[in-house]
Amino acid sequence: MSVATAAPPATPPARSKAARTRWSQRLSANVSSAGLNVAVLALTLAWIVPTLGLLINSFRPGGAFNTSGWWTALAPPFNFTLDSYRAVLGASDLAPSFFNSFMITIPATIIPAAVAAFAAYAFSWMRFWGRDWIFLALVGLLAVPLQVTFIPLLTLAVHMGLTSGNNFFGLNAGFLAVWIAHTGYGLPFAIYLLANFFRVLPQDLFESAEIDGAGPVTVFFRLVLPLSVPAIASLIIFQFLWVWNDLLVALIYVGGTPEVAPLTVTLTNLVGGLGQHVEYLTAAAFVSMAVPLIVFFTLQRYFVRGILAGSVKG
Amino acid sequence: MDAMTPLTVTLPMLAVDWETLLSVNLPTLLFVVIGVPLVLVGYIVGFDVLVRRLPKRSQPSVRPWVWVAPAIFFVGLILVYPMVGTVVRSFFDRRGDAFVGLGNFARLLTDHGILIVLRNNLLWLLLYPGLVLLFGLLLAVLSDRVKFEKPVKSLIFMPMAISFVAMAIIWQFVYYYKDPSEPQTGILNAIVVNLFHGLPITWIQDSRFNNFALIFIGVWGATGFAMVILSAALKGIPAELLEAARVDGANERTIFRRIILPLMMPTIVVVGTTMVIFALKAFDVVYVMTAGNYNTDILARRMYAELYSAGNYANASALAVILLLAVVPVLIFNLRQFRAVEARR
Q1: B68 — contact with chain A (CB < 8 Å)?
Q2: Quick one: which of A11, A277, B59, B297 could link to B292 by a disulfide (CB 3.0–4.6 Å)?
Q3: Complex ipTM, two decimals?
Q4: What is the C-alpha radius of gyration for chain B, rounded to an integer number of angstroms?
Q5: Do B82 and A152 touch (CB under 8 A)?
């Protein structure tokens, strides 16, 4: 597009020709930019149509999704209702699952983030035997499929009574098992992300703090943490979304116990369980998406930054 | 019957036990949210006090271990110990007491069912990273040149934020099948019937299409991820370089092939390897959409079935080890990449 403005100044006799070239160039640039705009819009539209369809279906009266396509609802007479949402939030497992999802996700985000921050600090600013090898091992563990951990961990959890049937000071022990599991699974990435950020903090800062007599604890809480808010924010968003959206780990460690089941598990059961009330599924899916979408759209900046720090440098 | 693929689990509607939720769980949640950070801070501060009591000379060699100990504990407990355990377990029989060598693998790999599983995993492995990169690159390059780049990227990135379960539900309605005598309510079959005058297709059950249908759900979800990373790499290419090439008379296609693509290659490789890992670990979409039926089963779901439905720990361990072996090349590649970056630092 900048080509159109780059035409050289011309003398009077040549002007008409130059103007014509410039004009035709501009025309072709405009045509191709119009084509480009259309292509991008078409792709974007194709990308959001599936979600849009579900959203519209979720506001249609019961059974309508099964008799006519959601696109017919876009033409008048409009007939939208909140019935599905009312049904889903009122009479199903979904409301307690919503609570369970928070119950699982919040600790399973805080614990690994804190543990990772400590470790990342040591990996980036302290010297110790085997440091680089241990860090390399963590990078290797990033790729390990969780499946290889299930059997021994399940055996261990049963052995220690950390299953959804037991209580732990009144708390369903299933929660505890899921928190611990997510902490372990999340740590390699969390440490990797934070260490990448910590180690590019300016060294003079640490030196002058040390001269002022600040110990590592002070440096960590007064300098490293405040300076790393963006990295920690992206880590927390990442871990939050990953745990909130997780199905497999929840299935493995709390199985089908409704008292502990997060939204993903309950939703999966609804896929088959509601039978003729499939219309509720639409609303249920959006209820489960509400929290991650809010997190995503309000904190997108940090989320993107985390993705970039986690992979481009890798 | 309609095209919704039922998982035959029917949960009874739970009478919501709000009393337990609010009287036990909510206080616990608060306790954990406040307590855990306090415990961890207390741990660091407490041990630092102890470390300070040590002779000055040995302090620097002890202190780092205090900081990494919790991480090493959790990673060791949750990842390393069970990984070793599973590998060992895969050489033992169902009950776990007789050593059978490679017997589990031999039995698994000669089972006809597993061949379909492996074929499907191969399909995922080839198509999923390939299509994600293709769409991601296309969208990154195209959206870079339009004015409304930001909203476009947000919308395409959006599926990254939601669960595979929600994605699967979204796509169940896209792939919805109705008898040809009725109007199609799934948009894909509506297009097939109304625009191409074809017969509606059972996208989920028909073995000719279903694997592609499932893989595309994954592609739809991950493209935004690839796009964001590739777009950042694209914007990192100096504008003068492209301008210089344009002045020299190179057309846009040449510029893309000769300058943009080579400069983006390291990032493409990183995204590609991430997608390969995703493809190998794929579980949720297949579990929710077909439960592995209609020839769509994949390793991770089969492993889950062996573990939970069949209770066959020998098979489940062996399948997990096969998955692990499959990621080893990626793992080695990642480590090399990491060391190369470190060496440049």
Answers
A1: yes
A2: B297
A3: 0.86
A4: 26
A5: yes
A10: confidence class by pLDDT, cuts 50, 70, 90:
very low
How far is C-alpha B329 from the geometric centre of its chain's CA atoms?
17
Residue A167, strand partner residues: A172
Those residues with Cβ within 8 angstroms of residue A241's Cβ, 6 or more apart along the chain or in another chain = A292, A295, A296, A303, B161
The Cα–Cα gap between B53 and B51 comes to: 5
User: Does any CB of chain B come closer than 8 Å to the CB of residue A46?
Assistant: no
CA distance B221 to A293: 14
Q: What is the mean pLDDT of chain B?
A: 88
Contact B287 A37 (CB under 8 A): no
**Does the CA dihedral B223-B228-B231-B232 come out positive or negative?**
negative
Contacts of A178 (CB under 8 A, 6+ apart): A104, A108, A249, A250, A253, A254, A260
Q: Where are the domains of chain B?
A: 18-89, 112-344
Whether the link from the prior residue into A77 is cis, omega within 30° of 0, is yes
Judging contacts by C-beta atoms under 8 Å, the chain B residues touching residue A50 are 170-171, 173-174, 187, 220
- CB burial of B127-145 (b: ≥16 within 10 Å; e: otherwise) equals bbbebbbebbbbbbbbbee
* Low-confidence winner among A25-39, A154-168, A246-260, A286-300 (lowest mean pLDDT): A25-39
The answer to whether B204 and B294 are in contact (CB under 8 A) is yes
* CA distance linking residue B222 with residue A297, whole number of Å: 17
pLDDT category at B91 given cuts 50, 70, 90 is: very high
Tens digit of pLDDT for each residue in B135-183? 999 999 999 888 898 899 999 999 989 999 999 999 999 999 989 998 8
**How far apart are alpha carbons B335 and A136 in whole angstroms?**
7
The answer on pLDDT for B259 being more than 70 is yes
Scanning the structure block, which residue is given the tokens 């896929």? A271
Residue A73, helix vs strand vs coil? helix
Task: Could you please state the CATH topology (level 3) that the domain comprising A85-311 is classified under.
Answer: MetI-like fold (1.10.3720)
Distance in angstroms (rounded) separating the CA atoms of residues B3 and B178 = 7
Chain B, residues 162-221, CB within 8 A of chain A, namely 162-166, 168-174, 178, 182-187, 190, 220
Nearest Cα neighbor of B199 from B208, B186, B190, B207 is B190
CB pairs under 8 A between A and B: 376
A216 neighbors A118 (Cβ within 8 angstroms): no
Q: What is the CATH number of domain B112-344?
A: 1.10.3720.10
Query: Which of B29, B78, B280 has its CB closest to that of A103?
Result: B29
Q: Where are the domains of chain A?
A: 2-81, 85-311
Residue A314: CB atoms within 10 A of its CB come to 20
Cβ within 8 Å of residue B181, ≥6 positions away:
none
- Residue B322 is encoded by which pair of tokens? 């096969």
Q: Are B128 and B218 in contact (CB under 8 A)?
A: yes
Mean pLDDT of A110-126: 94
Task: State how far the Cα of A250 lies from the Cα of B277, in Å rounded to an integer.
Answer: 20
Identify all chain B residues contacting A170, using CB atoms and an 8 Å cutoff: 24, 28
Which of B167, B169, B283, B288 is best to mutate for the A interface (most A CBs within 10 A)? Answer: B169
